[in-house]
Write a structure and sequence with these properties.
By secondary structure, the protein is α+β, with helices and mostly antiparallel strands. It is about 35% helix and about 15% strand. The two termini are about 25 Å apart.
């Protein structure tokens, strides 16, 4: 929530506009990558409309020192932190915003074996 005071009066205007830099300001280089992507072209929609739970998940991911990738259900839209980019190799930063299944297509049979993906989707 942003507070705006008008100059020369006592009026106060409150808005629910989410300011991207508020939650990505300490996320380093990958925070800038996330902030500048056109997420409106993805199932996640414009970054300013992201749910608090998605913003928190991405923020935790970006602040970690360990390689982390997230796949936001049900479309499995992928985000990841800077430590994960060696896993992505040549696909970085384009791996962000892709469907996790499409990105990992060559290993999807192994990743999805055992039902963990189906369980996650059913219990998301």
């Amino acid at each position: 929530m942003r507070l705006a005071l008008s100059n020369g009066s006592c009026s106060v205007k409150m808005t629910n506009k989410i300011v991207v830099s508020d939650w990505l300001q300490n996320a380093g280089g990958m925070g800038k990558v996330v902030a500048t992507k056109d997420w409106s072209r993805t199932p996640l929609g414009p970054i300013a409309s992201w749910a608090q739970s998605l913003r928190s998940t991405v923020s935790l991911c970006l602040s970690s020192n360990f390689p982390i990738s997230t796949a936001w259900c049900p479309e499995r839209t992928q985000t990841h932190n800077g430590e994960y980019w060696p896993v992505c190799v040549a696909k970085h930063p384009h791996s962000m915003e892709q469907d996790f299944k499409d990105y990992w297509f060559s290993t999807w049979a192994v990743i999805s074996t055992g039902g963990i993906i189906q369980w996650l989707l059913a219990n998301a």
